[in-house]
Amino acid sequence: MAKDAIIFSAAPGVGKTTVALGLRSQFGWPYLELGRIRMTYLDPQWKTENPREAQMSFEILCHMIHRFADYGLKHTMALDLFPEHLTQIPSRLTGLDYLIISLGVKDKQVHRSRLLNPARDSGYRDLERAWAWNNSILSRELLPHEIVVDTTDDTVPETVERVRQIIESQDGPVGMQGTPL
After folding, report:
1. Does residue 15 contact residue 120 with C-beta atoms inside 8 Å?
2. Torsion sign across C-alpha atoms 93, 91, 60, 103
3. DSSP state of 42
4. Which of 93, 92, 103 is nearest to 153 (CA)?
5. How deeply is 45 buried, as exposed, middle or buried, from its count of CB atoms within 10 A (0-12, 13-18, 19+)?
6. Are the CB atoms for 40 and 61 separated by under 8 Å?
7. How many CA atoms lie within 13 A of 57 on its CB side?
8. 103-126: per-residue pLDDT in tens?
């Protein structure tokens, strides 16, 4: 049975957006980013960002995942969640079949090259914060329905393929199951 949602967790620069977009390109699965929801109401420099509005956006994202599932969409990918949001997933996605895929790297130089790559579309460039976030993902206890993937030595296509295989191992052959209605 296809998962209702795939939640990607990773520090900035590790590759969650790139992997999700690769899967979207291959399979057409729905794709939601917490940051894109926040951009609809925050000022352009995000000077008004705060924990309360981030929580509101997270709740909106979870509501969207539920509605997508209600309309038959499968493999809705969600990303850009903060660590405190991940612990809320079990209560926010009650009744849905989901998988959390956390990506990490074990080499700071690899993380640096990915994070500071000028071709990267995100403006986030704080290596020390991103490295600390990455290490917290790799060292914390696993959450329910979570799998951690070390992407240190993988190319983007290799990581996309590994993640596809993980999803397939959870719910059988994958394909264009995101087709709505």
Report:
1. no
2. negative
3. S
4. 103
5. exposed
6. no
7. 22
8. 999 999 999 999 999 988 787 889
All residues at 6 or more sequence positions from 108 whose CB lies less than 8 Å from its CB, including other chains: 127, 131
Look at residue 8 and give its three-state secondary structure.
strand
Q: Which two tokens stand for residue 132?
A: 């600390």
**Residue 120 DSSP code:** -
Type of residue numbered 118: P
Q: Give the chain's domains with CATH numbers.
A: 5-171 (3.40.50.300)
Which tokens is 15 given?
Answer: 């590759």
Structure token digits, residue 126? 């704080």
What phi, psi does 33 have (nearest 5°)? -120, 130
Is the whole model's pTM more than 0.85, yes or no?
yes
Q: What is the dihedral of CA 155, 145, 133, 52, to 10 degrees?
A: 130
Low-confidence ranges of the chain (pLDDT < 50): 178-181
- Of 132, 151, 126, nearest to 8 by C-alpha is 151
C-alpha span between 62 and 65 (Å, rounded): 5
Sign of the CA dihedral running 38, 43, 48, 49: positive
Tens-place pLDDT, residues 61-89: 999 999 999 999 999 999 999 989 999 99
In angstroms, the CA 36 to CA 41 distance is 10
